[in-house]
Amino acid sequence: MTVLGVADVLQADVLVKGDACQKNVRHVVASDLMSDVLMVDEEDMLLLTSLASDQVLRTAQIVGAIGVIIVNGKPLPSSMVNVANDLRMTLAICKTPKFEACVAVHEALSPR
Amino acid sequence: MSESPQNVVRADKGADDPPAKGEPLVLLELIQRLKVRDVMTSTLWTVPRSATMHEIQEIMRLKKISGVPVEENGRFFGLVSIEQIIRALGGGYINEPCSKHMTTKLVVLEDDMPLSFALRYFDRYHYGRFPVLDHDQRLVGIICQRDINRALLVELTNELDRLERVTFRTPGEDSAYSVYVLREFPICKYDFENAGKAATQIKQLLQEKKFAPRVIRRIAVAAYELEINLCVHSDGGVLSCQIANGRAEIIARDAGPGIEDVAWACRDGTSTANEWIRSLGFGAGMGLANVKRVSDEFEIASKKGSGTTVKSVIYVEDGKSAAG
Asked: Is omega for the bond preceding B257 within 30 degrees of 0, making it cis?
């Protein structure tokens, strides 16, 4: 399933469609600690976080993530969409709490 | 009667806008790195409230200045500008005390604000000068646009000198022992607006040079963690990335405050970060440990009260990391 597919599952608003928005998600990380995200060494990773800051996008870009979905409907700083556009990173936001979002994404990505 | 400047507005640090797209990066780095106190004029000609407008006119003429602060025992009361002197001459009250005619509705800057705030306020208020106060509310200087132009010219000349010494070559263009990528980035304390941009640029540069993705990722992670460390824990410093002779060296160098127990700081989960930094998603105590994890060689030298230098080396051979 692509990043846009996952966003659809979470009924998320897609604010920026990045270069890798049609790539299949192979790994999901849910964390509000960017230090933890930087420890993950996986390809085609999607980041779920309730932290809404420019640094989330920069961290995602550094580890080569293919998209970021902000959960819990956190209000975004005005700069975030611009940073996502600059980094060509897919950015979406949903109202689902993080745990429920993880469960929904797990179900959507599990082989049937 | 006790008087003080009425309606003094202190520049709000949170009111800074993001830089416009396309502004030169070197200039942006300079106006973030330089503080108001680095640029302001700190040799001041001040007068007490009892000074007449005529006395101030004479000070302006002799010292070739266009604004005189009114101050007593370090306490700042107001400002008299050359325009007010002209009005006093025309209105026939040039011999009256300045306390009756000085400006007391003032916008002031703090001495530790980045220069970018001062620029923003010149743009917003169209004043010729701003008084500068320290944390104890004492007048420590005045800043005008001429001060900024002079400081930026000096700093830009220094920056150009430095850039001219840096060699840029593409891989394979020269002998295997040449330096072909060398970049340095000044990093400011608590500048979260820009934190991470240096590592992002390093990553983009390596992608343009077509290094292997795994090598790029390790270098980018090391650079990012070190950049955030400089931003969060140091008083500001420099991040550099040099690739030469099959090695990438990422070095973070700062001038303080230093680490008391280096071995403790390098352990997983140890951190001196405060709640605010943690709320931004950092300060989990994984930074240095993570740099070590992605490095083939790792060195740190620090002393409490002086600076810290961290060096991460990642082996690069034909675009591939030896430790993969």
From this structure: yes
